[in-house]
Amino acid sequence: MKLLRCFSYLCLVVFSVHSSAVAAQELINQEATKLWLKEKQETIELISQQLADNTIDKARLLELRQTLRSARTELQYKVDVIKPVNNSVQADLADLGAAPDEDAPPEPDNIQKLRAELTNESLIIEGLLTQAEALTSKSSRLLEKITSLRRTLFLDGLFERQMAVFNTTLWKTAEEPFYAQFSNYKGIFYDKTLRSLSVISGCILLVVFLFATLVSKKRLTIKLQNAGREHVFRLVSASLVLPFLAIGLGLLFIYQLFISQGIVTEANHLLIQKVLMLTGFLFAVYLMTGRFLKAALIRSHLRYLICVVALLFAVDTLLLESGKIIGVLIELAVVQSYIVSLTFAFILGLFSLFVLIGPKETKDYFFPRKIFVVFLMISLSIIIFNVFGYAALSRYIFEGFVLIFSLLASILVIRAVIRPYFYRLDKRFSQDNIGEDSEQVIYFWLCLSLDLILFFICLPFVAGIFGTEWQYIQETIKQAFFGFKVGNMTISISNIGVGLLVFLTLLFITRVIQRILDQKILPKTNMDTSVRQSITQVLGYVGLIIALMASISAVGFDLTNLALIAGALSVGIGFGLQSIVSNFVSGLILLFERPIKVGDWLITNSGEGIVKKISVRATVVETFDRTSIIVPNAELISSSVKNWTHADRVGRVIVNVGVSYSSDPQQVRDLLMDMITENKDVLKTPKPTVLFKDFADSALIFEIRFFISNIQEIFSISSQVRFDIWEVFKEAGVEISFPQRDLHIRTAPGLEGVFDGK
């Protein structure tokens, strides 16, 4: 016992020496951390003082925000580093246990020393952690303040009133800067090199544009002649791909040509880029509206409106960008805003009014009629804002209108071009032929993925159109792409994209395997068609479940937690979704046990018909009237069902016939037996039989019983047998009975002697 106690003390001494070394090392890190936190605190306090200044501009706010975001990221990282150290120290203190009471024997000196060191270290680390967390919170609050200040500056600039449009002083003040700016534009083209390059570039772009336009236009004309109305927009969109690519490549070549000749400099590169982009924008608008007009999707009036508005937007943007480089007075910018926005408002308002007071058929305008009321309200708003001097607000509405509709048109064209390829992909790799009743699972998920991708692509552009800084948009996209934590799970666009890609890939592989099995492997096994269909269908459901689970795991969800949630929801599913679960389980039983197969002839409580499809929820039965009955699988499992073709297709047919009482029953039986025996559609085994069934009121009833190889031909064979009976009886002189009645008159006053011929 004493030896064990000595060994324990020795271990504590070694542990204390090691802890002292670690404490010394942490003490050095703690000092460095203190200095670093002090620097961050000074930086944050300085930014806080600068934000208190009401004269701070938007550019400075962007710089301060970037500094604060970096500081907050570093502070959060420091918090994540300090927390494990603090937890480790707390765990060491917990291992030592509580300090002994005053009445208890004192601890050994080394343990007392170790407890004191750990307690001191814990206090220091907790202080550093508290300081880092406080600075992190303060930086977050300052970032929120910067966002509020930027919003205030944006709204103040947007609603700032300028000189009214009717103020003559404004126009006189802008006259001199206008001539000066025009002289600067004129002086640019004195450079012979620039003039030569401009001419060459224009010729290159024109040749490329004409070539791509003529080639695709000819193909579009041929396709439109044989296309339905629902495919016109898709065909027009597809015909725009080649011209747009040609225009883009031509503009890129021209830009590289300018760079090689030294035309592009640091001062004018933004202007040159915008000139080329606006040129491509005008070409694209002209080409797109021309194709829409050729396909009768829009009217010529709408095309002129779109082209004029696009030209107005391009000229306005070019003048603004060049004005920033040259440097013009604010009065000239205000006058330009008045001219451009009022021109746009009058054009849009007159056109909308023309549509609203004209015929009510607006389908050829590509827009619903109600949207022209919105257009009219926008034009009136711009005019009113200009009258009261809100030039910035009018320009903002004009630019937002053009950019939003340009973005919407681009998205619709891209969507229309890509979706047909998804349809072909689904048709190629689906196990069934694509038809109106096909599920088209791959097509649905691919289209849904495309719509989600286009939606998320649009969000940054829409945010930029409505005044959000591109730097902030880039930071938000970066944060959203790399994700943010919710508990122990990281949610990010990248994870969602990977999960979606995993799901589509596995679903695609499943469809390929189904296609190979259905067309290459299973037909060589001599299996029944319904068995093959059941195998491929079950494989599809298994693949869908595996793809779903794998995609959920790739997104970042813990499947064990998902299992717990599923277990917790099982009670609710059992009560609330009882019928759905029952049908699902019944569907699995039908697919595996196969009491009912595709092609079987069923008689159920819901109706009679041929089984066309068995899914996990319901079975589709097509009646002989060509209507479909959707029978829940639970009904097929829980109730009795008559299946004519369960084991095989052999079935018995019964045909009744009645002959008159004057006929010889033995002769009738022989005639019927000879007739049914000679019929090629009647099986020899089991042998057909003819029974003298009954004495009816007006006939002797005979019953013919025979078997056929395919019970689904019962109606055609029964009809042919009846034709044969008619021919046989006609040749033999056997009379087929009809209802007869004998009338006995006992007394008939007034009719005496009539029947005696008197």
From TrEMBL:
<dbReference type="Pfam" id="PF00924">
    <property type="entry name" value="MS_channel_2nd"/>
</dbReference>
<feature type="transmembrane region" description="Helical">
    <location>
        <begin position="196"/>
        <end position="215"/>
    </location>
</feature>
<feature type="domain" description="Mechanosensitive ion channel MscS">
    <location>
        <begin position="580"/>
        <end position="646"/>
    </location>
</feature>
<keyword id="KW-1133">Transmembrane helix</keyword>
<feature type="transmembrane region" description="Helical">
    <location>
        <begin position="270"/>
        <end position="289"/>
    </location>
</feature>
<dbReference type="GO" id="GO:0005886">
    <property type="term" value="C:plasma membrane"/>
</dbReference>
<feature type="transmembrane region" description="Helical">
    <location>
        <begin position="397"/>
        <end position="422"/>
    </location>
</feature>
<protein>
    <submittedName>
        <fullName>Small-conductance mechanosensitive channel</fullName>
    </submittedName>
</protein>
<keyword id="KW-0472">Membrane</keyword>
<feature type="transmembrane region" description="Helical">
    <location>
        <begin position="301"/>
        <end position="319"/>
    </location>
</feature>
<dbReference type="InterPro" id="IPR049278">
    <property type="entry name" value="MS_channel_C"/>
</dbReference>
<feature type="transmembrane region" description="Helical">
    <location>
        <begin position="534"/>
        <end position="557"/>
    </location>
</feature>
<keyword id="KW-0812">Transmembrane</keyword>
<feature type="signal peptide">
    <location>
        <begin position="1"/>
        <end position="23"/>
    </location>
</feature>
<keyword id="KW-0732">Signal</keyword>
<dbReference type="GO" id="GO:0008381">
    <property type="term" value="F:mechanosensitive monoatomic ion channel activity"/>
</dbReference>
<feature type="transmembrane region" description="Helical">
    <location>
        <begin position="563"/>
        <end position="592"/>
    </location>
</feature>
<feature type="transmembrane region" description="Helical">
    <location>
        <begin position="442"/>
        <end position="466"/>
    </location>
</feature>
<feature type="transmembrane region" description="Helical">
    <location>
        <begin position="486"/>
        <end position="513"/>
    </location>
</feature>
<keyword id="KW-1003">Cell membrane</keyword>
<dbReference type="InterPro" id="IPR052702">
    <property type="entry name" value="MscS-like_channel"/>
</dbReference>
<dbReference type="InterPro" id="IPR011066">
    <property type="entry name" value="MscS_channel_C_sf"/>
</dbReference>
<feature type="transmembrane region" description="Helical">
    <location>
        <begin position="371"/>
        <end position="391"/>
    </location>
</feature>
<dbReference type="InterPro" id="IPR006686">
    <property type="entry name" value="MscS_channel_CS"/>
</dbReference>
<dbReference type="InterPro" id="IPR006685">
    <property type="entry name" value="MscS_channel_2nd"/>
</dbReference>
<feature type="domain" description="Mechanosensitive ion channel MscS C-terminal">
    <location>
        <begin position="654"/>
        <end position="736"/>
    </location>
</feature>
<feature type="transmembrane region" description="Helical">
    <location>
        <begin position="235"/>
        <end position="258"/>
    </location>
</feature>
<dbReference type="InterPro" id="IPR023408">
    <property type="entry name" value="MscS_beta-dom_sf"/>
</dbReference>
<dbReference type="InterPro" id="IPR011014">
    <property type="entry name" value="MscS_channel_TM-2"/>
</dbReference>
<dbReference type="Pfam" id="PF21082">
    <property type="entry name" value="MS_channel_3rd"/>
</dbReference>
<feature type="transmembrane region" description="Helical">
    <location>
        <begin position="339"/>
        <end position="359"/>
    </location>
</feature>
<dbReference type="InterPro" id="IPR010920">
    <property type="entry name" value="LSM_dom_sf"/>
</dbReference>
<comment type="similarity">
    <text>Belongs to the MscS (TC 1.A.23) family.</text>
</comment>
